[in-house]
Amino acid sequence: MNLQHLTDKSLLQDTKILPTSEREFTVKVLHHLREIDRRKLFSDQGYRSLYDYCVRELKYTEAAAHRRIAASRLLTELPFLEKKIENGSLNLTNLASLTQFFRQENIVGIKEKEITLKRVEGLSTRECELRLLEMSTKPPEIRKEAIWVTEDVILQLKEYRDLKGSTESLADVVAETVTSALSELQKSKFKLVDRPRISRFSNSRTPSAGVKREVYQRDQNCVKCGGKFSLQYDHKLPYSLGGKATADNIRLLCFNCNQRERIRQRL
Ligand SMILES: [Zn+2]
Known about the structure:
Blueprint lengths: L7 H32 L10 H7 L5 H16 L3 H6 L5 H13 L5 H11 L4 H11 L15 H14 L5 H21 L18 H11 L12 E4 L14 E4 L1 H12 L1
Antiparallel strand pairs: 1-2
Helix pairs in contact: 1-3, 2-3, 3-5, 5-7
């Protein structure tokens, strides 16, 4: 499918409609899974469970299969969920979290489930997790994100810690190193030096260190989306059209917004 011929307007319009159809399809899938489950049809096909069937026959990832099965079972109990999934106020990830919450808190009554559902409606996945954590009567687990590193990296971390003469945990070594690496990167990328030099090349294409520093201190983030992903200095009026590398004409854009600007300017 090549969409290059679409105007920006119709591309945006079409894209806005698609998630609605996508959610309607999702609900259809849930109903089918529910009926397959009711008939236990997967067993005829040689699968051990609905989950097994979803992963091996339907090629869902483990997580996607888990979410769909949880949602389809909840849908059986609470038919009004259908509308909420379709209009996007409850997504499958949140429904899976809810299922887990009901189990963990031993919530079995329909009325009680409805009340809980109301409290997470319209929330993002992260917000939903936090809300459920607040509502939980069980002691909260510390939120951790595990990262996997190779043996080599562990050895390097230990060597680094030894050379520093430190005895802190490897997690602390990582945290500290990242903080200092981030600060170094910010300094070099945005020219945040202690004693700025006045540059004589203010008219060149590349902004001077002084301009970079000034623009960074003014903008901090991508001026279009507010993000920080691969921030770049961009000429508002392009250099090819006479735009100068002055603080007035230079702004911070993230990689994606910068790409988008380039594409737009080419049209
Ligand atoms: Zn951006």
